[in-house]
Amino acid sequence: MDRATICVQGGYEPKNGEPRVLPIYQSTTYKYDSAAELAKLFDLESPGHMYTRISNPTVDSVEKKVAELEGGVGAMMTSSGQAASLISVFNIASAGDNFIMMGNLYGGTTNLFLVTMKRMGIEARVVNPEMSDEEILSLFDDRTRLFFGETIANPSLAVFDFDRFVPLAHSKGVPLIIDNTFATPILCRPFEHGADIVIHSSTKYMDGHAVVVGGMIVDGGTFDWTKGGKYPELTEPDESYHGVVYTESFGKSAYITKARVQLMRDLGSTPQPIAAFLLNLGLETLSLRIRKHSENALAVAKYLETRSDVIESVSYPGLESSPEHARAMKYLDDGLSSGVVSFSMKGGREKAMKFMDSLHLASIVVHVADARTCVLNPASTTHRQLSDEMLKEAGIDPGFVRFSVGIEDVKDIISDIEGALACL
């Protein structure tokens, strides 16, 4: 099925006489007719649900829908996008290991990788597109476990160069994990460009209505975890499950199975059934919304380019003037570049904040990818924990504004911007 159809029909297939709409299975536990049946579940010998901390029928249906949208072999929903980022790395990296990360990642992810995971003994090594291939490869060693990037970086909007970075990662025998939050599987399917694992903050465009926090990890099922001896977590017996070897027992689904039955079990980053139900409602209109967001954002970006009197620069991959445009046309569906436009105000932080205070239709919120237009100054909010050098690495300056274009009539959005600029 086409992705637009999967958004509506995927994941849940009601049988004769069953509810047409995905039900909310609001139960922590499940009944079985015999102790032997339940024992098989705990030995990972048969499918089913044992406890909602690990899996749930409502959550399972949404996971299947997202896996189908991305073209993966399986998916696992988490309680947040941050939890998805953490588990995606921790699933294959232990104390003493390291991994490569792009320097333009979302600020929360950057802090997670450079601060919190450092305390866990896992080192993140930062690269940027300006580095030569040789410089990037020099950061790999025999304890490097993965390469992590974002399809469309938040908030710099740099488009990930799959054709460059996938071969670099694979030449060193490690998988590419890509955060596909801004693009969504409607605008980009990273597995088709060589990625191995995809994650999402489903809080953003997948939900699209700012009602439920969540995350998703999707396994492409293509990476060979047995080569090179780098991943004993997957290729050697797990004593917490009676010595199961994930690559032997679960084949292409080894990675996502381990993430669920070991890390979700132990860390408890569990999505609630109601969260999955609400996410599914958002997914049903995702194909329509992300295209409208993109069309509106391009119109807004073009308008902002005409206001060089107050705006220093405009960043949006859909603009022909953007240095990211060629990659957007190459990797994103029809060059559609999502709904976030970034720009820098002349006059720095003070002017940026006055601009935001002068808006009426657009709301100042710590969020993006809402059906409603919203705005933020990352340097003073979401990225304020970063040093000036790290801010520069992430493509942010004090006057930087992240403008998340909604699905309202674009004439009204531009009129709101015009009125706010007139107040500067």
TrEMBL record:
Residue numbers of N6-(pyridoxal phosphate)lysine PTMs: 204
A single cellular component GO annotation: cytoplasm
GO molecular function: cysteine synthase activity; O-acetylhomoserine aminocarboxypropyltransferase activity; pyridoxal phosphate binding
The UniProt record lists the keyword Transferase: yes
Pfam families linked: Cys_Met_Meta_PP (PF01053)
Cofactor(s) essential for the protein: pyridoxal 5'-phosphate
Coiled coil: none
Single Gene Ontology BP annotation: L-homocysteine biosynthetic process
Lineage: superkingdom: Bacteria
Alphabetic keyword roster: Pyridoxal phosphate, Transferase
Family: Belongs to the trans-sulfuration enzymes family.
The protein, known as: O-acetylhomoserine aminocarboxypropyltransferase/cysteine synthase
